[in-house]
Amino acid sequence: MTNSISEISGAATILAIGTNTTQAHPVLALQVKKAARNGANLIVANPKDIDLCRHATIHLQQRPGTDVALLMGMIRVIVDEGLTDKDFVKTRCEGYDELIASLVDFDLDSVEKITSVPKEEIARAARLYATNGPASILYCMGITQHSHGTDNVWAISNLALLTGNLGKASAGVNPLRGQNNVQGSCDMGCLPDVYTGYQKVENPDCRKKFEAAWGVSLSPKQGLTHSEIFDQIHDGTIKSLYLIGENPVLSEANASHAIEAMEHMDFLVVQDIFLTETAKMADVVLPAATFAEKNGTFTNTERRIQRVRQAIPQVGEAKADWQIVCEMAKRLGAKGFDFNEPEEIMAEIASLTPSYAGIGYPALEKSGIQWPCPEPGHPGTPMLHVGKFPTVSGKARLMPLSFRDSVELPDAEYPLLLTTDRSLFHYHTGSMTRRVAGLEQLDSEEFLKINPKDAAELGLGDREMVQITSRRGQTTVKTKLTRICPPGLVSMTFHFAESPTNVLTSSALDPVAKIPETKVCAVRVEKV
Amino acid sequence: MSSVTITIDGIKISAEEGMTVLQAAQANGLYIPNLCNHPDLRPAGLCRVCVVKQDDWKITISCKLPVKEGMVISTEDPAVQQIRKNTVELLIANHPMTCLTCEADSKCELQRVAHYVGITPDSINRYRRSVRSIPLDTSNPFFDIDHNKCIMCGICVRTCDELQNINAIDYAQRGVASLISTLGNKPIAESRCESCGECVVRCPVAALATKKSLQPMREVRSICSYCGVGCGIHLGVRGDKIVGVRGDQENPVNRGSLCVKGRFGYRFINHPERLTTPLVKKDGVLVEASWDEALDRIVEKFSEHKGEKFAALASARITNEDNYLIQKFTRAVMGTNNIDHCARL
């Protein structure tokens, strides 16, 4: 997030796009609901009639995968009606003319045709967003998990920049990160192209710095992304996979591909707290400690680094992940893994990572610190991009865009569009929440959410077992007839191993972010 | 905002304009008995326990009385005492006398008020009626509703409305039959309740109470391990087990609020299915092994597969320190940048 969670309730307008906030980020959603209650304009853009719509001023119910058109349509209205923040655009942005040129394809008649959203609603939303600041944009996987996810994010950025909604309180572009430490694992360089703090592995200066610190020579070549790793396991190029705290059997798009890859691979090590569906396939399983059994830090969606403290002894012979890695490295003869406490590891992180340079455990004691925190004693940065952007020119780039449809759309053979979502009561592949009896009581099985009209056409009743099939796989699941999904759209979570939704989803990737298109694929639903 | 000075029972205190007398008293460490007031909620004026006398003429409730320069308040005027005592006696007329086994015992606001106004066995008997016998609603897996303990302060209803905007419960019926109810008085588990437990936390009398569980012996401040919001929590510990989670009101992210997973979803931690030893596959079956055996096997294979034959997938669920070392291991020891994690899923 460019801004902080506590700022959301101060926004005059909130655009929540591709986020089912009350289900996936319930405590942050309190801020959104509070803002709406206090009179803020809440624009919800979501193909489904989600719970947040109860609080919305406008619900833009776009066809899944048409966000670029919707957002560029809004931008077109803002530009045509002279509602841009001209001073901000002039002093802080570049690429305005190129963006304007690309707007030619986004007249509202075309946009209405692409998105199925009435053009009057698009115009109304655009005016509300542009003229009632500060305006905050919240987005989540509904924006990113597309073959054009990067374009979706660019479109959001364009909208915020043109209206001057960056670098000011209660505004901003605010991705809601899904997992407790997904921000931190990115910050820590668990990505194939960057070291900690997004320092590029291909940049010789960065590489030299890490080589000097670690006393080794490092590969100048970018590594493989998540789905590419599974492709190369499939090909037999990658022989060993060290998999920590992840369950791709259920979570990977087009999961059958990942399962097949792991079945045939030479050596699979899984490190987890439970014998997950994936751990069962491993050659060696290592027992890890939970967050309650170790010290460390998590970095949340607003970049706040917070202390995690050990509350109980490690269960059985389980060990903290850092302890396991140190042991493994030492046995492989490596130097630089002699840590006694996570605090010592943080000292090394701080020494190599400009945005974490001021981070140490004593400073985090009270309420954590939001990075960038460039030196000890620095209070952290609740708001990014005040006065300047961290680019070479110091300006933000406006990006010309064109609309691309999703890779796989419904057709005669697979007439329904499947999208994925999450339940309030479960988390990811359910390895934790499905072992909590109370949560399991509140939500114990997968449902295919389907509009009553579609169900009637297929002769399906409520709670009826059906078979759902895509080009990649099939599973069985009970129906739930609900108007939350418009006709033509069906929806499932991916929490339940009994109905593994990701055998259906598409692994078509965004060319830049390499994120799979789990939000759009074509399926067929039949009675069992 | 400008300051005003008011006098409560002869003590001059300063207050901010816009405050109520009750808020001003509380801000200055003065106790005026009250039940339906809650600092997170708008004043409701339901319980009438916070009555005071204003400027020696008007009896009024302090939770709805805005402060005014020079205001003189009495909380001990004989008329105030009498009204307050009567109100409390009526509130406890049919309240169960099962304090010893009640979840709220020793932190019950009704107990506190009763002690303060000086309830005696005799004065209880004046209005005493039999305890209501409404069956417990045990339908929610995490908390029970005992309407018989309810004092109709409405804190739960207002929490669900003002803070959560869920509106799963409301007031229903009239007079002595009044109760807090879901739509159609269905069991709470069949309502739109999201089980966040925010009402349970605020209930002053344990009419809403978490299902019986061990009380923690100590608490440890930490961060919730579910979504990326990163709510502050206190882990309740008894022996070597986690027995509860409480929101951290000092944490700037959540200010004490939690969702159903964060508050009640902790039982995976000490779940019997936790992995407690390494496992090694032998003849196609995973069997328990020592750390030495498991690590030897790993070292043998990883040594053969350094460089591009190796990949690691770190985790968005583990700490920064864990993740840092995993990428360092992959790059510095295994010699490849084939490191990624589940950020895109």
Structural class label of chain B = alpha+beta
Mean pLDDT of chain B: 96
Structural category of chain A: alpha/beta
Number of strands of chain A: 19
- β-sheet strand percentage of chain A: 15-25%
Q: Give the termini distance of chain A in whole angstroms.
A: 45 Å
Please characterize this protein's 3D structure.
The complex is a heterodimer of chains A (528) and B (345). By secondary structure, chain A is α/β, with parallel strands linked by helices. Chain A has three domains: 5-176, Dimethylsulfoxide Reductase, domain 2; 182-370, Rossmann fold; 416-527, Barwin-like endoglucanases (Beta Barrel). Chain A has 19 helices and 19 strands. In chain A, the strands form five sheets. In chain A, strands 14-18-15-17-16-19 form a six-stranded mixed β-barrel. A five-stranded parallel β-sheet of chain A has the order 3-2-1-5-6. In chain A, strands 7-8-9 form a three-stranded parallel β-sheet, with no helix packed on it. The mean pLDDT of chain A is 97. Chain B is α+β, with helices and mostly antiparallel strands. Among the domains of chain B are: 3-91, Ubiquitin-like (UB roll); 214-274, Single Sheet (N-terminal domain of TfIIb); 279-344, no CATH class. Chain B is built from nine helices and 16 strands. In chain B, strand 13 and strand 14 (285-288) form a beta hairpin. The mean pLDDT of chain B is 96.
Overview in brief:
The complex is a heterodimer of chains A (528) and B (345). With 528 residues, chain A is α/β, with parallel strands linked by helices.
Please describe the topology of this protein.
The complex is a heterodimer of chains A (528) and B (345).
Chain A (H helix, E strand, L loop, with lengths): L12 E5 L3 H4 L1 H12 L3 E5 L12 E3 L6 H14 L5 H7 E2 L1 H7 L5 H8 L3 H13 L3 E5 L1 H4 L4 H14 L9 E4 L6 H6 L16 H11 L11 H10 L4 E5 L3 H4 L3 H10 L2 E6 L11 E4 L8 E4 L4 E5 L12 H11 L10 H11 L8 H4 L4 E2 L25 E2 L18 E5 L16 H6 L4 E4 L1 H6 L7 E5 L4 E8 L7 E4 L28 E7 L1
Helix pairs in contact in A: 3-6, 3-7, 3-9, 12-14
Chain B lengths: L2 E6 L2 E6 L4 H7 L23 E4 L3 E4 L10 E3 L3 H14 L17 H9 L3 H7 L15 E3 L9 H9 L5 E4 L6 E4 L15 H5 L5 E3 L7 E6 L8 E7 L2 E7 L12 H5 L14 E4 L2 E4 L2 H14 L5 E5 L5 H14 L5 E3 L4
Parallel strand pairs in B: 1-5, 15-16
Antiparallel strand pairs in B: 1-2, 3-4, 3-5, 6-9, 7-8, 10-11, 11-12, 13-14
